[in-house]
TrEMBL record:
Keywords: Endonuclease, Hydrolase, Nuclease, Signal. Residues 150-179 are annotated as: Disordered. Transmembrane segments: none annotated. Pfam families: Endonuclease_1. The keyword Chloroplast does not apply. Residues 159-170 have a biased composition (Low complexity). This is Endonuclease. Residues 1-32 form the signal peptide. It comes from Streptomyces nigra. GO terms for molecular function: endonuclease activity. The keyword Transferase does not apply.
């Protein structure tokens, strides 16, 4: 059965809740359906060693596949993001992750009104700084407004909070950050990519997603919410294009959860 769209799931949720209330019943807690199984052009080649596996075996196989990676310098990330995060509606601009703002590619820097390099897996949650490898991995580095980037800081991801300047629908509170609906799944798949790619076998911390807020190195949360976002916001054309560009033009590796979002549930 094909996966339902987020819009359809929201309509169904409202309809069921309304019916329950009219009948004098307590409305059930509804969640998005798990991601449907997918097939890609890479299954018989790139992902051949992972097919048919589940759980820890699948995670180990994917780690072996995606670790074959070309590493960029941190300065090279600037130009790469101008390609990977290009606004589909305006080739002169980048589309900022959390705010959704379209901003000129030339306005990269550290001042108000600029965009800079956001580490979706917060640097302090991995103790990797801007070193080549996890600190420069395009699969979790995104273009973002300088002030919005500062607002997010190193907070874990969770539901709830209040709006802020240039939020674009994203929310924040004292210890967590909720990205706008259109990129919640993107954020989830970036965090979970990092948890598979960096397993501590290259002199770096063994990154892992957990279900805590403000966990210590090397953890990032909240896993239960990230899994929900992966189901609610499946990969769209822009996210798939970005994965293709990183694979073909920069790092030579892919984010497997963009190609196979159902593998999130299989592993976690």
């Amino acid at each position: 059965m094909p996966a339902t769209s987020p819009r359809h799931r929201r309509w169904t949720s409202v309809a069921l809740t309304t019916a329950a209330l009219l009948a004098g019943l307590t409305a059930p807690a509804l969640t998005a359906a798990p991601a449907a199984a997918t097939t890609t052009a890479y299954d018989d080649t790139y992902y051949a060693a992972a097919l048919g596996k589940t759980g820890p075996a699948l995670k180990t196989a994917l780690h072996g596949i995606i670790s074959n990676q070309t590493k960029l310098s941190y300065s090279a990330v600037w130009d790469a993001l101008k390609v990977t995060d290009q606004d589909p509606a305006n080739s002169n601009n980048v589309k900022l992750l959390y705010s959704g703002i379209s901003r000129s590619k030339s306005l990269n820097g550290g001042n108000t009104g600029n965009w800079n390099r956001e580490h979706v897996w917060a640097q302090s949650h991995g103790d990797f700084g801007t070193s080549a490898g996890p600190g420069t991995d395009l699969h979790h580095l995104r273009a973002e407004d300088v002030q919005v980037n500062s607002t997010r800081g190193n907070k874990d991801f969770d539901n709830g909070g209040s709006s802020f300047t240039n939020s674009g629908g994203s929310l924040t509170d004292s210890n967590s950050f909720e990205p706008r609906d259109a990129v919640k799944g993107d954020v989830a798949r970036m965090i979970l990519y990092m948890a598979v790619r960096y397993e501590g076998d290259d002199g770096r911390p063994d990154l892992e997603a957990n279900d805590s807020i403000n966990g210590s190195v090397p953890y990032h949360g909240r896993l239960s919410v990230l899994k929900q976002w992966n189901d609610e916001d499946p990969p769209d054309a822009a996210e798939q294009r970005r994965n293709d560009v990183i694979h073909s033009s920069y790092q030579g590796n892919r984010n497997p959860f963009i190609d196979h979002p159902e593998w999130v549930e299989s592993i976690w």
